[in-house]
Amino acid sequence: MSVNQSIIFKNVTVAGSGVLGYQIAFQTAFHGFNVIVYDINDEVLEKAKQKFDTLSAAFTTDLKATPEQLADTEKRLHYSSDLADAVKDADLLIEAVPENPAIKNDFYTKLAAVAPEKTIFATNTSTLLPSQFAAVTGRPEKFVALHFANEIWKHNTAEIMRHEGTKQEVFDALIAFAKQIGMVALPLQKEQPGYIVNSLLVPLLSAAMELWAKGVADIETIDKTWKVATGAPVGPFAILDVVGITTAYNINKIAADATQDPIKLQIVEKLKTDYIDKNKLGVATGEGFYKY
Ligand code: NAD
Questions:
Q1: Contact residues for 277 (Cβ-Cβ < 8 A; gap 6+)
Q2: What is the pLDDT of residue 3?
Q3: Does ligand 1 have an atom closer than 6 angstroms to the CB of 150?
Q4: Is 199 a catalytic residue?
Q5: 126 an active-site residue?
Q6: pLDDT per position as a tens digit, 160-195
Q7: Which domain holds residue 56?
Q8: Dist CA 292 CA 126 (whole Å)
Q9: Is the CB of residue 284 below 6 angstroms from any atom belonging to ligand 1?
């Protein structure tokens, strides 16, 4: 298989129309690409279509998008629940199916059987590594990770992470594409679990929760220390409220179960009884560590 020196993308297929997939599709169409949104059936795709208005409102408020731009975005968005049809002209396929290795494996196996040779595959996985799926894609040299953050139009990071077998031209093409769709392109030259953002963020949030669980200082004092000392606009507990207490709980539960570390077990217990059981799940429910 050969890859052109300068790879130009025109047609992009986004697989998975959930939280991130639909945002990626919208963002890509907004920036002038033809987009096909693919999902398992038409019912799910109908639900995705209904998110168009919500995202239009967000783009209007946050980016001052004009009605013309949004009408053009809508025209460029197409939908299909037939995988072969959805990828038949795709220059790039961005995969945002559930974070489950079995589902992703199955998806890439089916995709490999129907995608044209030219199609580059990019995974938006948060916690898995592209090398895990490289073989099953049938085109490891045209496979790369392209990781977005939730609310991609505002938190516009795109971490582009190659695995050992990714071709340089493919890596470069994804960096260029990320910029074309309005993202800050952040290349990772090596595989790194958690990319850059979570490699930095997870230890910070864990350390903050340990200080809290040990009773060293209260939440406000910990956040204030971080803000005043580093100039950061928010502290770790305010970040946790945005991430969501359930996600924090899930991550800590895995670590607590694996290590049986008493502090981690205490963190998990406090998150459950003081927050999750009281529906204080963070910004999403109006209260977490702080009230909104
Ligand atoms: P989600 O559960 O909201 O959406 C997943 C979508 O995939 C659903 O619409 C589902 O119907 C569809 N799907 C299921 N099986 C499929 C298949 N075989 N083929 C095509 N579509 C299929 O999930 P999400 O939060 O959008 O996450 C998707 C990916 O994005 C995950 O890998 C996740 O790690 C990553 N991600 C999520 C976030 C986030 O904040 N939610 C941030 C960055 C990256």
A1: none
A2: 45
A3: yes
A4: no
A5: yes
A6: 999 999 999 999 999 999 999 999 999 999 999 999
A7: 11-188
A8: 27
A9: no
